[in-house]
Amino acid sequence: MATRVALIQLRCDSAEPMSDRVDRAFAMVREAAPRADLIVLPELWSTCAFDLPASRAGAQSIDGSLVTSLSELARELGIWIHGGSLAELVDDATRHNTSVLFDPQGTRITTYRKIHLFGFAEGERTVMSGGDQLVVVETPCGATGLATCYDLRFPELFRALTRAGATAFLISSGWPLSRIEHWDVLTRARAIEDQAWVIACNEVGTQGTADVVLGGHSVVIDPRGVIIAQGGEAEEIVYAEIDPSEPDRWREAFPALADIRIGSEIS
């Protein structure tokens, strides 16, 4: 049975009040809900991915108002919601870039703390602490690994998720337009090399003191590397249908993963 997914390619501008952006995001989720079994939001959409001061000031606990509202929305609409990521406040000194996933009952199924922090010595790591746990959970897409933005540049993470059983990847991102060609190549590469679905939601808009422009191109890619649906460079909802059993069929027909010789083999 096909699973219907919707990617909320939200416009996230630092100049817009956070409350207005949250209201618009929730309205887009409501719009997409009749056509989706699972909805995905982008990275740090409430505070803006390239607005580190906003992420510092706007960080919330994992039981805060934003996560609570997302839970209530999933329960109200009766759908799965990947709430993108938020700036999670652990204590005065510790924040994480944390993804949240809810089932149709509004239960928070899992969280994922972004492992690879972007910006080198001057960027995200000045505000956030990196996570250290891989996450693979059952969703309507099958066994699903979670990743966030800069993680996409590290194929060993996705291979580890595949070893842990993943046949699909959900990726929330705030990827800039200046490097959008990298996004286009890397999303396809992760699908091809791991023979898995890639469901990757990026945002658009202008963020931070440097006026970084985000690139969109939210995309759904099948296990062979074929683009099923892709967004442009403006705010929109990207819809697609996926077959959760397709990775198993393709892996059986083209068993490249069985030929891995570096690291542990796929069972």
Task: Give a short summary of the structure.
The chain has one domain: Carbon-nitrogen hydrolase (Nitrilase/N-carbamoyl-D-aminoacid amidohydrolase, 4-Layer Sandwich), CATH 3.60.110. The chain has helices at 18-32, 52-58, 65-77, 155-163, 180-194, 246-253, and strands spanning 3-9, 38-40, 80-91, 94-102, 108-113, 136-139, 142-148, 168-172, 197-201, 204-207, 212-215, 219-221, 227-230, 236-242. The chain is an alpha/beta fold and 267 residues long.
Tally of helical runs: 6
What is the correct CATH architecture? Answer: 4-Layer Sandwich
- Report Rg: 17 Å
Q: What fold name goes in the CATH topology slot?
A: Nitrilase/N-carbamoyl-D-aminoacid amidohydrolase
Strand content: 25-35%
Helical content stands at 25-40%
Could you characterize what this model shows?
There is one protein chain. This protein starts with a strand and ends in a 14-residue tail after the last helix. It has six helices and 14 strands. The longest helix has 15 residues, at 18-32. The chain is α/β, with parallel strands linked by helices and 267 residues long. The radius of gyration is 17 Å and the shape is globular. The strands form three sheets. It has a six-stranded mixed β-sheet. It has one domain (3-259): Carbon-nitrogen hydrolase (Nitrilase/N-carbamoyl-D-aminoacid amidohydrolase). It has helices spanning 18-32, 52-58, 65-77, 155-163, 180-194, 246-253, and strands at 3-9, 38-40, 80-91, 94-102, 108-113, 136-139, 142-148, 168-172, 197-201, 204-207, 212-215, 219-221, 227-230, 236-242.
